[in-house]
Amino acid sequence: MDLVPFLKTIASVTSPLTLIAFIVVAILAALLLVLKSTQGLQKAQELLLKDAALRPGEFVKIVNAVLLVLLAIAAMLFALLAYDYNTNLKKSERQTGLACFADSCTDRDPKDAGCDKGADTITSTIASFPDLGKEFKNLKVEMRYSPRCKASWVKTPQVIGATIYFEDKAGKKHVPLKILDDGINDSHFTNMLSAEIERRACIEYPGKEPQCTGFVKGQI
Predict the structure, then answer these.
(1) What pLDDT does 74 receive?
(2) Backbone angles phi, psi at 123, to 5 degrees
(3) Which of 43, 99, 109, 192 has an alpha carbon 20 to 30 Å from 80's alpha carbon atom?
(4) pLDDT (tens digit, 9 = 90+) per residue, 119-148?
(5) SS3 of 145, please?
(6) Higher per-residue pLDDT: 135 or 42
């Protein structure tokens, strides 16, 4: 569980009484810790139990026992809050249709995984193979990116016979897609690649030099 998202959303848990109880117990435990580290215990004993017949050290033992109980209760309440947070997070992921994140998205279809919603083009280039005909001119090669899924994919117009893919710094190709005459006249796109990999989007036609975008470094 990531601590920062947890702290940001802890106030919106579905069990506000658990949250209130946790805060109260945590404050009491913190107060006792402060008293133990200063002369506060002695002053508290003089103020609250000045007429009580306690032997030396008994008040400290009582405070220690109470502190342990409070810390145990705080730990249990925190566990309940964490469970509530994770339950709500999984429910939210199901509702938004996300099926993967980062590495687990690699080689998955962005539409099937629900990652295409809210995606942006983070870099692009215009590729041309003019000697192949006018339909091979001014082809927009886009690197699409999903901030929710932390994954990206290559998108181009239908260029029958071309292969679109990602290339990393070592020259390795990832999630290549050869565009076939499949009757789909709309844009074509590759499967996804984790955005943690430094990569560029490329289009390649047999016998021609590949044309690519600039490299994008790691996760955004």
Answers:
(1) 81
(2) -160, 155
(3) 99
(4) 999 999 999 998 888 888 999 999 999 998
(5) strand
(6) 135
Question: Hey, where are the domains in the chain?
Answer: 3-93, 102-212
Please report the pLDDT score of residue 102 as a whole number.
86
Residues 6+ apart with CB under 8 A from 191: 106, 107, 108, 109, 110, 153, 175, 177
Rg (CA), the chain: 30
Q: What's the token pair of residue 215?
A: 């490299």
Report whether pLDDT(166) > 90. Answer: yes
**Angular region, 215: left φ>0, alpha ψ -120 to 50, beta rest:** beta
Decide if 205 contacts 190 (C-beta within 8 A).
Answer: no
Count CB-CB contacts under 10 A for residue 4. Answer: 7
Residue ranges with strand state E in 1-149: 120-127, 139-146
Residue 144: alpha-carbon gap to chain centroid: 18
- Smallest CA-to-CA distance from 143 within 169, 125, 162 is with 125
Nearest 5°: the CA angle 185, 186, 190 is: 115
pTM as predicted: 0.56
Q: Does 4 have pLDDT greater than 80?
A: no
